[in-house]
Amino acid sequence: MTCSAARQPNDRPPLRVLLCSPRGFCAGVVRAIEIVERALTVYGAPVYVRHEIVHNRHVVESLKARGAVFVEDLDAVARDAPVVLSAHGVAKAVLEDADRRRLLVLDATCPLVTKVHREAELHYRRGLEVVLIGHGGHPEVVGTLGQLPAGAATLVETREDAAAFAPRDPHRLAYVTQTTLSVDDTADIVAVLRERFSDIVGPNRQDICYATTNRQEAVKRVAPVADAMIVVGAPNSSNSQRLTEVARRAGCPWAALVQRAEDIDWGRFGALRTLGVTAGASAPEQLVDEVLEAFAERYRLEVETVSAAEESVSFPLPRAFRAREAAG
To answer: Which of 24, 149, 215, 293 is packed most tightly, with the most Cβ within 10 A?
Structure first.
């Protein structure tokens, strides 16, 4: 019998599963998805969404089935239909373009990303050169850089970038960070910047979002005692990629990012005794359940939850929806 074939119940070896908590949807993702769902209810299909509302194929396909139309450019948006901006945020130029076109815009930008936007703007207005710690090309980074005039901010992706960065004035600097980065990587880059530029101004509280921090902390607790780690999430999801990296760095011999159970490479597992499971902030719990069911077909599971924090954060919907609800 091959490893990929389901075993009979009495043939299945035991497997301890350490289920990370928290995992999956964060408050910003819940809010973004709810905005699209409310828009479909209130305005009817089609509702346009600029870029993937969150980085998860399952979520996107589910919303498409209900009438959401995902586009990358506002040229594709019908004038009489609403357009939702994704949770990652957009450059100011996108909002200005939507205003010129007189589009009905529903902004689903995560409030924690908006916080970073406001920080960057404030630093710029105070005459500081801004350093953005992040990954080039990610929608959140594109949106944050787009809050400022060209050349006002410099993207730093690595410790090497931080060591080579040459500011206009080393005493007039500030930094902000992408919200979904590895906590440890960000700390290393900030340490280099602070060592080189003692006057650099940072946020009052770190920009790495609470959900990113909590999910990474849970992985750090599980990874050292797990033979393998499964991270449920999309390959273009920054926070999911970071969870995989954190697991490896924390001592897990093998960690894999999978979108759903069908993506699991069963041939990679040998004498597996302990498995860690978590999910990125844009992965629905349904996909975690699917992964556990797939392992249950091959192993006798003993599932234990390892908790790093309790989350009770929620974000309000846009004013347009709140006003409609208040009016009855």
So the answer is: 215
